[in-house]
Write a structure and sequence with these properties.
Elements (H helix, E strand, L loop, with lengths): L30 H22 L7 H20 L9 H13 L7 E4 L2 E7 L2 E3 L1 H18 L8 H18 L5 H17 L4 H29 L7 H11 L10 H12 L11 H4 L11 H34 L3 H25 L17 H19 L4
Antiparallel strand pairs: 1-2, 2-3
Length: 394
C-alpha cells in the first residue's frame, strides 16, 4: 500500500474524462503482464496435462479449450474500456444475485455433494459462483469508487457494506463456504483501499466474529432439535477439526491432508519427473488435478518446480501492483486491487491447505487447477487489469 498513490489524488469515475469514440490503441499495452500470464497459464497447462493422463474423469482437451476461450476474452477485454462499467452498481448487483442463485432455478439447477452449485446448459455443467467472482469484483469497485476515496459517513458505509454482503449471503444458500470467503475478501479489499475509516472496519470485523459465534451456537441448537447440523455440513466441520487439531488427521477425515503432505515431501529437490507422481497416479491423492494440483506439481518437479511457480505468481502480483500505482482512476485501481486480493487469497489458501497451514477447502489454484470455469475467470479479470493499464492516465 505504501507504493500506491494517495487516495486524495485519485479521481472518482465521474471525474475521469474519456472519449468513447476514440479509436482503441495498444500503445501502452503491458508486455510484463502479457508475458507473466502467458508463462503462468502455460505452466498450468503442462501440470494439468501430466495430472490427467490415463484418467477418464478428466479431459485435457476441455482444459485446453478453456485456455483458448479465456485468452481470447482477455484480449477482447484489454481493448474494452473498463470505465463504461463504473456507474452500473445496481445492474451489477442484480446480475450477481441472478448468477449466484441460478443453480436454484428449476430445470437447469444441478445438486452434487449436498450443494446446489451447478447448472446444466446444453449438456455442459457450469458453476456460476465461479463466474460471479468477476461480477463481484466489478460490483465492489463500482460501489466503493463512487465515494472518491473517502468513505467516512456511517450511513453510506453501512449501505455499501450491505451491497457487498449480498453476494456472500446468496452463495451461502448453496452452501459454498469457500467461494463465500472469496467474496468477503474482495469486499474487504475494496473497503480498505477505497478509504473506509479504520473504526468502521474494526467494528465490522468484531461484528462478523460475534455473528459467526452466534451462528455456530445456533447450529448446535438445531442439531439438538433435528439430529443434524444445518449451517455447517459434517464434512465442513471435519475439515475445520483437522485444521485445529492435527491429531485428528489420523482419522478418515484427515486422509486427504496426510496424502497431500506425503506427495509434497516425496518430490524432494527436483521431483520424480512428469507423469511419475505415484500419489496421484495410483489414486492415493483424491481430487489431484483440481484441489490438490499443487501436490502433483511438488511431487513431479520437486522444490525447484514449486519455486518456479511462486516466482511466476510473484511476477504477476508485482506487475498488477505497478498497474494499480500508475492509474489515477479510483474505479480502475479498485478493480486491479480486488483482482490481486482474490488471486492472493486463492494462492495462499490452496497452497496453505495442502501443507496443513490452512483449513481444507475447495478453493482452486489460479491458472493451475483443472477446471475451465475458474481458468476463464482468471483470464477475464486480468483482461480488465490490462484495460486499466492501457488507459492509465499517464
Amino acid at each position: 500500500m505504501a507504493n500506491l498513490p494517495e487516495i486524495g489524488s485519485i479521481k472518482a469515475p465521474d471525474q475521469v474524462a474519456y472519449d468513447a469514440t476514440k479509436p482503441r490503441r495498444f500503445k501502452f499495452i503491458s508486455m510484463p503482464l502479457l508475458v507473466s500470464v502467458a508463462l503462468l497459464s502455460s505452466y498450468g497447462l503442462l501440470i494439468v496435462w501430466s495430472a490427467v493422463q490415463d484418467n477418464a474423469d478428466y479431459s485435457f482437451n476441455r482444459q485446453a479449450a478453456g485456455f483458448a476461450i479465456g485468452a481470447v476474452l482477455m484480449l477482447l477485454l484489454w481493448a474494452f474500456d473498463y470505465r463504461r462499467l463504473s456507474d452500473y452498481t445496481t445492474l451489477l448487483l442484480i446480475i450477481n444475485i441472478v448468477l449466484i442463485l441460478s443453480p436454484r432455478f428449476p430445470l437447469i439447477g444441478v445438486s452434487a455433494n449436498g450443494a446446489n452449485s451447478w447448472i446444466s446448459l446444453f449438456g455442459l455443467q457450469i458453476q456460476p459462483g465461479e463466474f460471479a467472482k468477476v461480477t463481484v469484483v466489478l460490483l465492489a469497485a463500482s460501489a466503493v469508487s463512487r465515494y472518491g476515496g473517502r468513505l467516512d459517513d456511517p450511513r453510506e458505509y453501512l449501505k455499501t457494506l450491505g451491497i457487498l454482503l449480498v453476494p456472500f449471503v446468496c452463495i451461502m444458500t448453496q452452501p459454498d463456504l469457500g467461494t463465500g470467503l472469496v467474496y468477503l475478501v474482495i469486499a474487504a479489499i475494496a473497503l480498505i483501499v477505497g478509504g473506509a475509516r479504520l473504526k468502521f472496519l474494526l467494528l465490522t470485523l468484531a461484528a462478523f466474529i460475534v455473528a459467526l459465534g452466534l451462528l455456530l451456537a445456533l447450529d448446535e441448537l438445531l442439531k439438538s432439535a433435528t439430529g443434524s447440523y444445518v449451517l455447517l455440513k459434517d464434512y465442513q466441520r471435519a475439515r475445520l477439526t483437522v485444521f485445529v487439531n492435527p491429531a485428528y488427521a489420523q482419522t478418515d477425515e484427515g486422509y486427504n491432508l496426510n496424502q497431500a503432505k506425503i506427495a509434497i515431501g516425496s518430490g524432494g529437490l527436483f521431483g520424480k519427473g512428469l507423469m511419475n507422481a505415484t500419489q496421484s497416479t495410483l489414486g492415493f491423492l483424491p481430487e489431484a488435478p483440481t484441489d490438490f494440483i499443487f501436490c502433483v506439481l511438488a511431487e513431479q518437479l520437486g522444490f525447484f518446480g514449486v519455486v518456479v511457480l511462486l516466482a511466476l505468481y510473484l511476477a504477476l502480483v508485482l506487475v498488477c501492483f505497478r498497474i494499480a500505482r500508475a492509474t489515477q482512476d479510483l474505479f480502475g485501481m479498485l478493480l486491479v486491487m480486488c483482482t490481486v486480493g482474490m488471486l492472493l487469497f486463492h494462492i495462499l489458501e490452496n497452497i496453505g491447505m495442502t501443507c496443513g497451514l490452512m483449513p481444507v477447502t475447495g478453493i482452486p489454484l489460479p491458472f493451475m487447477s483443472y477446471g475451465s470455469s475458474f481458468l476463464i475467470v482468471n483470464f477475464v479479470l486480468l483482461g480488465f487489469v490490462g484495460s486499466v493499464r492501457t488507459r492509465s492516465n499517464r
